[in-house]
UniProtKB/TrEMBL annotation:
PANTHER family: METALLOPHOSPHOESTERASE, CALCINEURIN SUPERFAMILY (PTHR43143), SERINE_THREONINE-PROTEIN PHOSPHATASE CPPED1 (PTHR43143:SF1). One of its GO terms (molecular function) is hydrolase activity. The lineage of its organism: Bacteria, Pseudomonadati, Pseudomonadota, Betaproteobacteria, Burkholderiales. This is Metallophosphoesterase. InterPro entries: Calcineurin-like_PHP (IPR004843), Metallo-depent_PP-like (IPR029052), STPP_CPPED1 (IPR051918), TAT_signal (IPR006311). Gene3D superfamilies: 3.60.21.10.
């Protein structure tokens, strides 16, 4: 069955579901030609469900992820795939409980009506065992894949509890990028930001600038990440970085509070500050169109 194409009008209709503004990422006017095999498509970024968390910041902690799955399934045009940018589960010192949470998470997201699912770990999933349990359930923690003219690179900046990519992974990235033409359209997926957003709050990757330097020769690079539980946009040179909202609780704006504590649940506006992101890629332009979507409408 041929999948329907999402046109601009439909994408704007998606934005209207959550009242979120469409955000363009990329280089409008850039002369980058369409890559071979490039087609329009649409995918979804989900992040930071922290399955296993319980507490006042989200009285519906066990209900929010299923609601997000239902919201994605209710989109008027189904995404080609989803990416989940880490912290699938909430941390626990008990290895058996960690695996139980991952199994429950896997079962819930198996209800997503999408053709592909791509996962990467967050520090809650991986920092206590260097990603061992994550790999048992979801496979490698860094890898690549292609989709309709875009090349995706998944990086792991969480399995090392020191918040580093590490020399081995940077060497892998250097070698992989060396095989690609410089006009390749790149989308990089990470959990922590690759730049120093707020190192005091662990919102940085200690050797992230080395990865950014390796990516810099490519004209069209966009980074999507999670970790900070809020929408955020940043540029390092021509490289755009976009953080997604969380599916468990929002966190304060960077360094806006004495401590990095969850924002209180608002009973008058449940699920406020939570959500996921729709991303439209078009063959005719290097810009990606982003829109923020709610877990629950209304």
């Amino acid at each position: 069955m041929t999948r329907p194409t999402l046109d601009r009008r439909e994408f704007l209709a998606l934005a209207s579901l959550g009242g979120g503004a469409v955000f363009a990422s990329g280089l409008y006017g850039c002369a980058t030609p369409a890559a071979a095999g490039a087609e329009d498509f649409f995918f979804v970024q989900l992040s930071d469900s922290h399955w296993g968390f319980e507490g006042p910041p989200n009285p519906d902690a066990r209900g929010t992820l299923p609601k997000a799955v239902a919201a994605v399934n209710a989109l008027s045009v189904p995404p080609d795939f989803i990416v989940f940018t880490g912290d699938l589960t909430h941390t626990t010192d008990d290895p058996r409980e960690r695996r139980e949470r991952m199994a429950q998470f896997r079962d819930i997201v198996s209800g997503l009506k999408v053709q592909e699912r791509h996962f990467l770990p967050g520090e809650h999933d991986a920092s206590l065992d260097h990603g061992k349990a994550f790999q048992e359930f979801f496979g490698p923690t860094h890898y690549t894949f292609d989709h309709k003219g875009l090349h995706f690179i998944v990086l792991d900046n969480v399995s090392d509890p020191a918040a580093r990519l590490g020399d081995e992974q940077l060497q892998w990235l250097r070698g992989h990028l060396a095989t690609l033409p410089r006009d390749t359209r790149l989308v990089v997926l990470t959990h922590r930001p690759l730049f120093d957003l707020a190192p005091q709050w662990d919102w940085a990757t200690r050797d992230g600038e080395q990865a950014v330097a390796l990516l810099m020769p490519f004209a069209d690079v966009t980074v999507f990440y999670g970790h900070i539980h809020q929408e955020h946009h940043h540029m390092t040179g021509h490289i755009a970085h976009h953080a997604a909202r969380s599916l468990i609780f929002p966190l304060p704006a960077p360094l806006s509070a004495p401590r990095r504590l969850p924002l209180p649940w608002n009973p008058e506006h449940p699920y406020e500050g939570l959500g996921f992101r729709g991303i439209q890629a078009r063959a005719a332009t290097p810009a990606l169109a982003l829109t923020e979507l709610p877990v629950v409408r209304g």
